[in-house]
Amino acid sequence: MYKPANYKEEKRKKEFVWLKRFSSLMDDKFNIGGFRFGLDPLLNLIPYGGQAVSFGTSLLLVIIMLRNGAGSKVVVKMLLNIIYDAVLGAIPFFGQVFDFFNKANKKNITLLHEHYFENKHQGSATGILITILVILFALCAVLFYLLWIFGKWVWSLI
Question: Is this structure's pTM higher than 0.70?
Answer without folding.
Answer: yes
